[in-house]
Amino acid sequence: MSVINKTVLLVAVFFTALLMISCGPDEAPLTIDQVGPPEWAYNSTIYEVNVRQFSEEGTFAKVEEALPRLQELGVEILWLMPIHPIGEKERKGTMGSYYSVRDYFDVNPEFGSKDDFRSLVEATHEHGMKLILDWVANHTAWDNYLTETNPDFYVHDEDGNFIIPPGTDWDDVIQLDYDNPEVHNYMISALRYWVEEFNIDGYRADVAYLVPTEFWERARLELESIKNVFMLAEAEEPGLHPAFDMSYMWGGHHTMNGIASGENTLADLDEYMDRIRNEFPETAFMMAFTSNHDENSWAETEFNRLGDGVEAFGVLIFTKEAMPLLYNGQETGFNRMLEFFEKDPIDWDYDSPFQDFYATLIDLKRTNTALRNGHKGAPMERLESSNDEAIYAFVRQNDEDRVVVVLNLSDDAQDVTISYGIEAGTYTDLFSGDEVTISESTDISFGTMDAWGYTVLVK
Asked: Which has the closest alpha carbon to 173: 90, 85, 95?
């Protein structure tokens, strides 16, 4: 491996030249404004896999065993947290952080072998799903082999010592230096490796905002010369698009937490959604979530943060203008903070009602054209209700489909009337399966809705 890694810089130069000529003699090279998400991403739900905690064994093989269940659940994109060997020097805890990468060209032996990973990717595709890898481009482990072969790849202090990422307490990792163009070449060669050799379908980029945008733009173009990939940025920065297809809705997540605790209002949520629409490109995907690995391990579970509103906010992230994320275990109502640096497997409860709850929402997301991601989806049209301080109601509709969502985001039961905006017709209640007929009327009663209640009507 060390010999291979010493040659990757030369290989990267070759790949750059290849990219410029791959379009053919009469075609202009692909530009960053011409890239976009794969077609399969437009109606997808993304599912985050913490391999270490996914099973008692914590292996690729056990994730592969779960693929039939995940296929039945309906998720279409599997995001694996970093799979690389973990640094031992300055390691946190017993097992260390996935985000302390010792070798970008290898897999963590605790998870299995490269053949095991290849089998997982192939099986994921056979089950009609895609797989993206979590990528840590900003920093490496203290004992990454690059510290010996290429110490100039790192930022140093005035005494010539490696430094941790500035402004952080991430003392188990050290900062790469993107002022050095060879760092760009090396990292892009590593990104290409997993697409070319294992046929993965894209990346989730850890702290993407800390790495120069010009790096991500070049990386995206080089990956596009191999296949149309999907790119998720751990960021909420409009400038990272179109190098990335999707960004986090961090602000929306914190606003939902604030609504549950009484610190935010529904007007704050409207203001946030308006800001996203105004600041991000129309083609950008946004990712909505009630949990992920960071929130679960450091900020409490969704049940602690959202209380009785867990299901109502779950409905919201699946029906608003966003791609919904599930963190492994949410689909079975898992309610415990997982250790980050130790072995701490999920307690699976396959009889949990959350299995059907999320499967129903995922199926709606996958099949209803009004809920598509990005510019292919219909906009949210807020509906006026009898109490807009407690009731968050909206419709998304196009020529083919219509979805009406009514959420009581409050601790009190509400008598709910929608003043206008719902077209007459026969709808299906998503969760009960009952038919609901709405006649021509300006005041449509939804009766008394329980605290944190919800209704989704589909036509």
From this structure: 90
Q: Give the containing element (helix H, strand E) for 278.
A: helix 266-279
The residue type of 31 is T
Task: Please spell the DSSP secondary structure of 2-14, one letter per residue.
Answer: HHHHHHHHHHHHH
154: tokens are: 């790192």
pLDDT digits (tens, 9 = 90+) for 226-239: 999 999 999 999 99
DSSP lists the bridge partners of residue 371 as none
Token pair in block for residue 155: 């930022």
Tell me: do 320 and 185 sit in the same domain: yes
What CATH number is associated with residue 187?
3.20.20.80
Which of 217, 186, 220, 214 has its CA nearest to residue 202? Answer: 220
Final residue of a structural domain among 347, 378, 409: 378
Per DSSP, helices labelled H in 91-130 are 114-126
Short-list 257, 300, 454, CA closest to 364? 454
**CA-atom Rg of the chain in angstroms:** 23
Model confidence at 393, pLDDT cuts 50, 70, 90, reads very high
* Residue 286 β-bridge partners: 247
What pLDDT is stored for residue 26 in this prediction? 58
| DSSP per-residue string spanning 149-206 | H-GGGB-B-TTS-B-PPTTS--TTEEEB-TTSHHHHHHHHHHHHHHHHHH---EEEET
C-alpha 293/C-alpha 254 separation (Å) is 15
Query: What is the per-residue DSSP string for 198-215?
Result: H---EEEETTGGGS-HHH
SS3 62: helix
- Inter-axis angle of helices 114-126 and 181-198, to 10 degrees? 60
- Domain of 412, in residue numbers: 382-458
The 10s digit of each residue's pLDDT in 260-274 is: 999 999 999 999 999
Quote the strand ranges of 60-156, DSSP E.
77-80, 130-135, 139-141
200 and 145 in one domain? yes
Count Cα atoms within 13 angstroms, Cβ side, for 198: 27
* Shared domain check, 182 and 54: yes
> Residue 284 carries which side chain, given as an amino acid letter?
A
Mean pLDDT, to the nearest integer, of 417-429? 93
Cβ-in-10-Å burial (0-12, 13-18, 19+) of 258 comes to middle
pLDDT of 31 reads 96
Report the CATH number that the domain containing residue 437 is assigned in CATH. 2.60.40.1180
Q: One-letter amino acid identity for 346?
A: I
